[in-house]
Write a structure and sequence with these properties.
about 375 residues, five-stranded parallel sheet, three-stranded antiparallel sheet, about 25% helix
């Protein structure tokens, strides 16, 4: 299905695919963006109406366990690749030990990738069904197979996959010898120390943002969490939108998620983008900042505080507000020392009139 979808995209006459490229800059507003892309065949400037950020994620490489140094220690993605049909047969190990929550411990506060447990149990189940004679052991701090993924955990246990839990304060100790990879842990259920010899050790590390994704926060002026994943405008009301109009996100760029969740969010992003692309023109709300040119002193205070990159300065040094980018937060209005800015429908005269009307009603109610 994935190959077919990629072929449809690359062969479609109205789809342009650029690979091996980096984003240099991007500016503009909803319906009128311009992004500079640098690639092997030079630099391109693309004009577009909306932007969907779907940078995905990557698997962290835990070198501390010997990944990349010892052929008997591989990551979960490499183990999954061995489960797919290949031309050359892969040697079946004498035993498999899977270590979940394998870091990175230097990224604090440490977050849970959510998908590793379900992926690990699915891979363990697939391997056990293909090689029922090979012992498969899963070591984890906690198994989080949420939702329908809980079925994978039950099926894997029924197939003979053994699960040990260790305390967060007592992580497993891994030693590599010429004979085997030895894992020692204290199981929480038994309260005893257990030693396992693994012919093949599979580590399931965290999923981290793709390389270069952090640079897009400055280019597109979009927020990101402390872990480097992009933040949506609202987790329930606008789960596929950024705060800035015309920018959307989906998939691993948002957070590690299972395939069905990534597909659902990508369809939502495509639907939200389509609501803008099918229109000939866009209407802008009236609650935007307005500039009194006679009062502006070019102090740049509004430019510094604007979170949506909606303010610039013209050739005369006067502030100019892009209405399609302005979100009407009023922050620039509150900090302007010259009172040169006002918010549409919230001008000083309007607010004073509202306050006087409110106080008049309160006075009338008190007298009555």
């Amino acid at each position: 299905m994935l190959r077919e979808l990629a072929e449809r995209a690359t062969s479609h006459p109205r789809v342009r695919v650029l690979t091996g490229c980096t984003i240099g800059s991007s500016h503009g507003t909803v319906g009128n963006f311009e992004t500079t892309v640098a690639g092997p065949d030079g630099e391109h400037t693309i004009s577009h109406g909306v932007t969907v950020i779907a940078t995905g994620l990557q698997e962290w490489k835990p070198a501390a366990y010997g990944v990349g140094e010892d052929a008997r220690v591989i990551t979960l993605s490499e183990f999954e690749a061995r489960l797919t049909p290949v031309v050359a047969p892969v040697e079946v190990p004498a035993s498999v030990v899977m270590l979940l929550c394998a870091g990175p411990w230097d990224r604090m506060p440490f977050y849970c990738s959510r998908t590793c447990c379900a992926q690990s149990m699915a891979a363990a189940l697939a391997f056990k069904r293909a090689h029922p004679e090979v012992p498969v052991t899963v070591i984890a701090r906690e198994i989080r197979t949420y939702g329908t993924s809980e079925v994978l955990f039950t099926q894997a246990r029924q197939a003979g996959v053994v699960v040990f839990r260790h305390s967060p304060d007592e992580p497993p100790q891994v030693t590599r010898t010429p004979e085997a990879v030895r894992v020692t842990l204290r199981d929480q259920a038994l309260g005893e120390e257990i030693t396992l010899d693994a012919g093949l050790m599979v580590v399931a590390p965290a999923q981290v943002p793709s390389e270069g994704a952090c640079g897009l926060t400055e280019i597109f002026k979009v927020p990101a969490s402390a872990d480097g994943f992009f933040l949506e405008a609202h987790v329930k009301l606008r789960p596929a939108d950024f705060a800035s109009e015309g920018l959307f996100l989906c998939g691993g760029a948002h957070y590690p998620k299972l395939l069905d969740e990534a597909i659902a969010q990508s369809l939502a992003s495509a639907a939200r983008a389509s609501t803008l692309l099918w229109r000939d023109s866009l209407e802008v709300g009236g609650v935007v900042t307005q500039v009194d040119r006679d009062r502006c002193t070019t102090c740049l205070t509004c430019l510094r505080v604007c979170a949506y990159d909606a303010i610039s300065f013209d050739g005369d040094g006067i502030a100019v507000v892009e209405p399609t980018r302005c979100q009407g937060c009023g922050l620039c209005v509150s900090v302007c020392p010259g009172s040169a800015l006002s918010l549409g429908h919230y001008s000083r005269d309007q607010m004073i009139a509202k306050i006087e009307a409110l106080l008049g009603e309160m006075e009338g109610a008190r007298v009555g």
